[in-house]
Amino acid sequence: MINIEIDGKQIQAENGATVIEAAHSAGIAIPHFCYHKKLSIAANCRMCLVQVEKAPKPLPACATPVTEGMKVHTHSEQAVKAQQGVMEFLLVNHPLDCPICDQGGECMLQDMSVGYGGGHSRYHEEKRTVLAKDIGPLVSAEEMSRCINCTRCVRFGQEIAGQMELGQAFRGEHAEIMSFVSGTVNSELSGNMIDLCPVGALTSKPFRYKARSWELSRRRSVSAHDSLGSGLAVHTKNNRVLRVLPIENEDINECWLSDRDRFAYEGLNSAERLTKPMIKQDGKWQEVEWQVALEFAANGLRHIANGAGAEQIGALATANSTLEELHLLQKLMRGIGSDNVDFRLRQSDFSGDGKQQGASWLGMSIADIGNADRLLVVGSFLRKDHPLLAARIRKAVKKGAQVSIIHSTDDDLLMQVAHKTIVAPGALVDALDKVAKGMAAKQADGIAGSLLGGERVAVLLGNFAQQHPQAAQLQALAQQIATAANGKFGFLTEAANSVGGQLVNAVPGAKGLNAAAMLATPRKAYVLLNVEPELDCANPQQAMAAMQAADLVIAMSAYKHHATEYADVLLPIAPYTETSGTFVSAEGRVQSFKGAVKPLGETRPAWKVLRVLGNLLKLDGFSQDTSEAVRDEVLKGMDVAAKLNNASPVPTQHSAPSTQHSGLQRVADVPIYYSDAVVRRSAPLQATTDGAIPLVWMHGEEMKKLGLQSGTVVKVSQGQGSVKLFAAADDKLPVGVVRLAAGHAATAALGAMFGTITVERA
Amino acid sequence: MLSQQVTTLIDKELKKYPADQRQSAVMAALRFVQDEKGWIAPEDMADIAVYLGMQQMAVFEVATFYHMYKLEPMGKHTLTVCTNLSCQLCGSGDTLDHLHKRLGIGLGETTPDGKYGIREGECMGACVDAPLLTINNRQMCGRLTPEKIDQILAELDKQ
Asked: What is this model's ipTM?
């Protein structure tokens, strides 16, 4: 520790800290623009000039390391004069358009100029103009004349997002922030540049001119779109969500937010929202009162339970439903005598059910991932499935960690990958087995060697590994590898409440049917909570067949979706901004939130709907008054940490895994902006490159075999269904594999996410 | 695609730097491309980025930062006329007038046959020879008079 004095205050600072860091930790404000605690030091705005005793001239606080006995003055005459001088220069070229600037009211430059700027300008010449840029549907760069060239956005791209999409071209007076050849910014973290921009140069395109910052109410919430549990500040006006910003939490999302979390809210205001309960009578949809719809649903369920038997009823929920909703859903099902309830809709291997000692979770804290020195990520579309975890791993790699990948696609992770094994899905178990054997044999090189050389090892199973038909074997092997490396092993759980769903036991017991079995052996009735079966299930073909054959489908959803074709009752339920609830993140963090706005139209929170259904069915234990009461019913007295356990008995002998697959195998990712119902309806996200219609990706050799070229229209078939899409070549894919996204309407006619698929010229 | 000659030159340049610092060769690489085709297109920058393992934007930053990289075709013979103070006092205006009379083009323009282009230059540090111009950034011609310019153009015409 080093003793310094700032403005007469004695301060202890870390060795190697800068003056600005020491000042901030002591609560002393130093004006700054280019400095950001999470980014490298640029020292190019000069706003943080301070007086340091014995230094001949003012020094930039952001780039001056503390030294023993240093005496700093942030408000002395010399310091203030320097700061005022810098401010005058910054304002020379900055337009005076605050009244029409979106940043007005929350602008660093505006605030600072009140403190340090003059009342009028001594500069009367022409200001420089910088032309507007179109850098995509999320970030607006319409008024680049406002840019003060702090380069925060550039450094964010290089250092956090991992790709330098913006840069500072030209020089001196002509310097401007732009993308390469007018390209768009495609990073899945691009929205953070809006927060970082200290002026109104980069602003949020969807939020532009919607409201002034002081008109907005802020409500705390939790992200429903991935399992990280990012803190959200939901900004609302007139009962409408107008934007979402991050809430800083060093242990979770730091100060960042993925674009999916930030811009998904646009889907909340979609025209497809279901606002009134509806029932189908004589093949026609009719809007009805809640009482009528609920009684219709309850009677339907009672009728099937008494007639065909309660086991003919199945309940499916998405894993981003709240803890309260999932709890009441399973309680309702078990109350009417059915054990068929599940939220693991995309999973295909359930052989590990009942064997594992606890709930699947990350196996470590999110912070632990950042501190790991060796990582093995198995079967994960890391950047797209877990954008901020990818950023954390990227940071770890920059600090010297080695990350190895075993997967079926070789997407650029924008970080240095130490070792990778890219194989077809059918060979994934073999690949992992080889690493496990390498670990046992104390192999010195390759993935095994890398892991053995680490002190803090993390083995992580991604969405693809969890959805894999041999998921249990992959889990057993990952566990074995982690144990051999003396490390931790966990799941990058798929959705916001994948862990919570397990805690409330929204999974079938010994007698019940899991998500796959419920659809493979069709039930007479289904209760759907937030589910769009053709998009959310592992096998859309099978799911839709089951829905269409069912006598009764009760669809609880925030949207009027395809359910109109097969459902009998549509119950409008509130998405996460309109209800209170709880999510349990991948690391087991229980986070409750309140509704940010009132439910739209006649929409009601799903926990209330389920409670009333329970009452109508005369079941016990449905008398909760608040969502907190529902939560406490489950969590009170529960030691959540003790419930989280990935350990499962390791099969002594691995069954010979590599079944010979004939033909092409499908590799299906769920594109980042198709992962749940809200995101699917967010127009700005859909307009990004990640929102494009899926292509049929194959290795160039496979395409040659089939006589195809990139851009050819091909007919892709699975089971009875087929779709026509464009083919594209990706030579980084393994041979024998077709990569075709699931979760998208364009591929909803196809079958399982894994398995054989045929491609032919259309 | 970068030509065989260019990649050979870049490889030679790369030997000067540590193996994990390939980006150090970016300025040289841009120069090689410019020497070969006379200017640097965005596609060339993208190719260089791939070859040196850099971000495209980082190459673009370098290429736009330095004045001597030509980002658009500027004629087979690019004449860069210094217009800074010393040259101005010694008659760079006359140089430009004479060039305009001979070639029919002004600053930032190229002759229709693509043979000549004129760019504005900054001080070349040789004010003793003012007014001056450079030919393709390589050959410096000083103490310019209309006669001397005619002589230079006559020689260039022969090439």
From this structure: 0.89
